Amino acid sequence: MTEHDPLARRFEAERPRLHALAYRMLGSAAEAEDAVQEAWLRLGRASVPGNLAAWLTTVVSRLCLDVLRARRETPVAEIPETPDIAGSGSPEDEIVLAGEVGRALLVVLDRLGPAERAAFVLHDLFAMPFDEVGPILDRSPATAKKLASRARLRVRGTPSVPDADLTEHRAVVTAFLAAARGGDLAALLEVLAPDVVRYADPATLPPGVPAVLRGRAEVARGTTLFAGRAQLAEPALVNGDAGLVLAPGGRLAGVLKIQVRVGLVAAYEVVVDPRALAEMDIALLSSPAV
After folding, report:
1. Where does the RNA polymerase sigma factor 70 region 4 type domain start and stop, copy by copy (predicted)?
2. DSSP string spanning 10-38?
3. For the segment 53-73, what is each residue's pLDDT rounded down to a tens digit?
4. Number of domain units in the chain
5. Cβ atoms 269, 277 nearer than 8 A
6. Could you give phi then psi for residue 220, rounded to 5 degrees?
7. Per-residue pLDDT reduced to its tens digit, 85-118
8. Is residue 257 part of a domain?
9. Residue-level pLDDT at 22
């Protein structure tokens, strides 16, 4: 046993927490692992800190901030492509991890500025006091609190419908998603309005499938084609009302804008155009969980 073994064991005990933190900061399992590994390398070159957990948290957080800031400065053409809507471009473990953390949460976090994202993740998701968050961001605790508050407002969003309507719409969207995931034609028929209309970007459809479908039976059959993709969908607040985000690896690939009328889906639109997605207001339907 070398003199470094006890330190290595202490680091490995911290690794799961550090990776969880970095993943929520970056939304990429590979980049999160890189940040954690770099923290280990830096630890090997530093004097052993008195508070190892706090030191590692600071290092990993600042490494993640560097990555987030670099993303902001990278021309769009150089940013890796978003995984395709069916998820085939994303590793299976990344898809599973995104599902565990919450795809809608990752989508919303990805829209925050680096400092806002870090402040929200550290305080709201990892319960760090602002007296500790501030120095990590090179900001005062008061400023860190403001950053987290601003991020929290964006994460929660602002409903455009009354609370009672939103509750009903959430229930309908959840039932629709469950039926779509199971490819359950009977359940879809129950949640769709008789005159329902489905609009879809042709890029999301197999050849020969019309972009517009009308009527409960046609839309239900067309929705069964969505079963595989529905596994990667999650309810979210879309433009102030209940809808669905498609985010295979936690990166937004599409949105279902859903209109609910009298407890049924009256219409839904599948949107995948990056410019249209960028203009949408997306937030959580419920409070995020760590």
Report:
1. 104-154
2. HHHHHHHHHHHHHHHHHS-HHHHHHHHHH
3. 999 999 999 999 999 999 887
4. 2
5. no
6. -60, -45
7. 433 344 566 777 777 778 999 999 999 999 999 9
8. yes
9. 97
- To which H or E segment does residue 72 belong? helix 52-73
Do residues 214 and 152 make contact, with C-beta atoms less than 8 angstroms apart? Answer: no
Residue type, 22: A
A 10 A CB-CB count for 172 gives 21
- What is the C-alpha separation between 142 and 155, in angstroms, rounded? 20
13-34 per-position pLDDT tens digit:
999 999 999 999 999 999 999 9
Determine how β-strand 282-283 pairs with β-strand 233-238. antiparallel
Determine, yes or no, domain membership for 289.
no
Q: Provide the token pair at 136.
A: 């990590």
**Beta-ladder partners of 8:** none
Per-residue pLDDT at 77? 39
Instruction: Tell me which long-range contacts 84-88 makes (C-beta under 8 A, separation of at least 24).
Output: 84/248, 84/253, 85/204, 85/229, 85/246, 85/248, 85/253, 85/254, 85/272, 86/228, 86/229, 86/232, 86/248, 87/229, 87/232, 87/248, 87/249
CATH number, position 42: 1.20.140.160
Span of 82-91, 128-137, 165-174, 185-194 with lowest mean pLDDT: 82-91
Measured CA distances, 149 to 119, 142, 191, 236 (Å): 9, 11, 37, 20
Residue 237 sits in the same domain as residue 257 = yes
User: Tokens standing for 152?
Assistant: 């929290």
What number is the average pLDDT over the span 174-191? 95
Backbone φ and ψ of 183, nearest 5°: 60, 30
Residue 86 structural domain: 5-156
Q: Enter the pTM of the model.
A: 0.84
**CA–CA separation, 216 and 198 (whole Å):** 10
Instruction: With H, G, I as helix, E, B as strand and everything else as coil, classify residue 259.
Output: strand
Q: How far apart are CA 65 and CA 115, in angstroms?
A: 7
